[in-house]
Q: What sequence folds into this?
């Protein structure tokens, strides 16, 4: 099951859906195509089929089921981000299991929504993730916020050879701020934030903002506290 990408200029957000339940996949496709400025470029039932077609379609966003036959959505996400780090992945799942959430984020997912999310929530998530955000349903966000309860340490930035500005930015990323919010908070341009994030990814050896936040959080937990 697949639909083709629109011809012409890329003036829409192109989305690929990877979901093994055909009825649900078709519902998601209809919901996505009903959104202004968003187009469903393809719908695929397995990670393997989805990965093959992502090479051809090069979407902006992938809506990825976490539980797929064969290769899991988490494994597929890691491959997407390795091959095409510019593609954003939002996980769609019926689960709010902590381990699955953090495994998906560590694999490079930029957002995590429960499948019962409303069409409005789904549309906002697609737009937000393209703007540099990390969209999550309220239930998921609460779990993630709890994971970032420890106060940041400058020693962590030094351990990764981050500059003072890079440390400030990754701390704000870990708090869930989008690029525009970070730029406003630090009184710098959004483009400057993007450049710093690129350097942060390189230094942390990660592929996405959420993976950077997770690695930064993990390093905080390992810091020797005075």
A:
């Amino acid at each position: 099951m697949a639909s083709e990408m629109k011809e012409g200029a890329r003036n829409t957000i192109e989305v690929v859906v990877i979901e093994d339940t055909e009825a649900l996949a078709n519902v998601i496709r209809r919901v996505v195509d009903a959104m202004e400025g968003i187009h469903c470029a393809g719908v695929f039932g397995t990670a393997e089929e989805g990965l093959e077609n992502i090479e051809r379609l090069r979407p902006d966003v992938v809506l990825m089921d976490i539980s797929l036959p064969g290769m899991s959505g988490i494994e597929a996400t890691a491959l997407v981000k390795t091959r095409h780090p510019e593609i954003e992945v939002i996980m769609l799942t019926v689960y709010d299991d902590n381990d699955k959430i953090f495994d998906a984020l560590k694999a490079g997912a930029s957002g995590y929504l429960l499948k019962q999310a409303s069409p409005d929530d789904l549309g906002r998530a697609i737009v937000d993730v393209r703007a540099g955000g990390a969209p999550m349903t309220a239930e998921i966000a609460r779990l993630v916020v709890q994971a970032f309860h420890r106060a940041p340490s400058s020693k962590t930035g030094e351990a990764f050879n981050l500059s003072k500005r890079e440390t400030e930015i990754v701390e704000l990323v870990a708090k869930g701020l989008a690029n525009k919010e970070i730029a406003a908070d630090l009184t710098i341009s959004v483009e400057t934030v993007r450049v710093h994030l690129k350097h942060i990814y390189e230094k942390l050896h990660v592929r996405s903002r959420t993976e950077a936040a997770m690695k930064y959080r993990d390093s905080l937990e390992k810091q020797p506290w005075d």
